[in-house]
Write a structure and sequence with these properties.
Blueprint: H1 3-16, H2 18-28, E1 34-37, H3 43-51, E2 60-63, E3 67-72, H4 80-88, H5 92-102, E4 117-121, E5 126-131, E6 142-150, E7 163-165, E8 175-177, E9 183-188, E10 195-197, E11 206-215, E12 229-230, H6 237-256
Antiparallel strand pairs: 1-9, 2-3, 3-4, 3-5, 4-11, 5-10, 5-12, 6-9, 6-11, 7-8, 7-10
Helix pairs in contact: 1-4, 1-5, 2-5
């Protein structure tokens, strides 16, 4: 399928549920705004997308104290369906509709896929509690929305690998959003939008299509520039200390070098 056909399906399904999605987002907006929609695409299309995900050997492994996952963003080196679905979320009508639901003016999609694309997580993969990098690759626009589309069939909550958001901070209970097959999650990103992905405990692969939307203005008046900022889970005291030191070092580098000492490789170069 081509992206125009996929984006049309995405648009119509979101449009059909616009009122309830807006209620979801508004109900959580004062902390970390989010909404999710199940059965986003026809089941057979979602399954086809899942089946086109690359083998792990063709992805970029990210393994550190902060995270463990596999990413793919040079989309023209993979099956064309993956590129089509990634960019279907960047269709003007889809972006505008999400803008109306979330009440955010002039949303900008990201053709560079800076930290976007697709990701795969296997047994023992995780993503520690973190704040996303505040800006785009050129540090010109603010990152304001994170779009996650999950496509692994028969995924269960007990598998782990689920999205966790922390609307009251890391010392209070998190909200867990299951990485359910054919589910789209849209989440606000700002100075307080701590989120994580729980460790996968089953020998299965969780597959996700990722996009970010940007804006000329930040979501919160208190927002300031920050690198991707990691913390430990509440019981990980030593890890939390080490990650806070790591955050300070990386932040200091970005203070001295606006775009870092090297270009971030996680972007789509056509």
């Amino acid at each position: 399928m081509k992206r125009a056909a996929i984006s049309k399906l995405i648009y119509q399904n979101i449009k059909d549920h616009q009122l309830q999605l807006k209620k979801q987002f508004l109900a959580s907006k004062n902390k970390i705004g989010f909404f999710y929609l199940d059965a986003l695409l026809p089941k057979e299309i979602a399954l086809e997308i899942y089946n086109k995900f690359p083998d792990l050997e063709r992805t970029v492994a990210r393994k550190s104290l902060r995270e463990r996952k596999f990413t793919a963003y040079q989309m023209n080196t993979y099956d064309s369906l993956l590129e089509e679905v990634v960019f279907a979320f960047q269709d003007k009508k889809v972006v505008q509709l999400v803008s109306e639901i979330c009440g955010i003016k002039e949303l900008l999609p990201d053709p560079n896929l800076y930290a976007g694309g697709v990701s795969l997580m296997t047994k023992d993969s995780f993503l520690s509690p973190h704040l996303d990098n505040s800006h785009d690759k050129n540090r010109e626009n603010w990152r304001v929305l994170n779009l996650l589309y999950y496509v692994t069939p028969d995924w269960e909550l007990a598998n782990g690998g689920n999205l966790e958001i922390w609307p009251k901070g890391l010392q209070q209970a998190q909200i867990t959003i299951e990485s359910k097959f054919n589910r789209l999650v849209v989440m606000a990103t700002h100075q307080n939008s701590w989120h994580s992905v729980s460790k996968i405990v089953e020998n299965k692969v969780r597959c996700c299509v990722s996009n970010y939307y940007f804006s000329k203005e930040p979501l919160l008046p208190i927002d300031t520039f920050h690198v991707t900022t990691f913390r430990g889970w509440p019981k990980e005291k030593l890890k939390d200390i080490l990650l806070q030191i790591d955050n300070k070092i990386r932040s200091s580098v970005r203070f001295l070098f606006k775009k870092g000492v090297r270009e971030n490789p996680h972007q789509y170069k056509k």
